[in-house]
Design brief:
The chain is mostly helical and about 100 residues long. It has a domain of about 60 residues. About 50% of the residues lie in helices and about 0% in strands. α2 runs parallel beside α4. The longest helix is centred in the first third of the chain and has 18 residues. It is elongated and about 50 Å long.
Amino acid sequence: MARLLIEWPISSFGGARTELRSLFDAYVEVKQRQHVLDYDDLLLYWAQMMQEPSIAADVSGRFDHALVDEYQDTNRLQAAILLALKARKRRWNRCAA
């Protein structure tokens, strides 16, 4: 799942490509060995969980409103989670302050 995080063309890093790959692989290995998740892992697991309709309905049913500070800084993964939270077809207003 961690490999999904790299969406940019790694060729844009020039000669550092091998070093970056090695560093990232070591980071993932340490996380797995220590049984920990980072913020990106949490978002990936949450988004995957929200693809299951029964789970999405259960989770979204717990909230009447969602406040997102700095929505303009929301990435695609975060936006997908927010959209899945409105599974009951409610209308949500977005406001970037």
